[in-house]
Amino acid sequence: MESIEISDRDGDALTLTTDADGVWITCTHGEHEVTVGPLITDDLYLALTHAAPSTQRKHAGSAP
Hints:
The protein is of the alpha+beta class.
């Protein structure tokens, strides 16, 4: 199982957890948490790539 977490400026968090069954997405805001999944990895990839045009995507570690 692998997880990656990112947070926004307000401290809200998005966690992606993957294992053999797929991907779980957990959103945390203060004491509230919602998790969906497992999602099929390829379906999630397609949804995310269609949601953000390539001009808006940034490579991790690149300058803003």
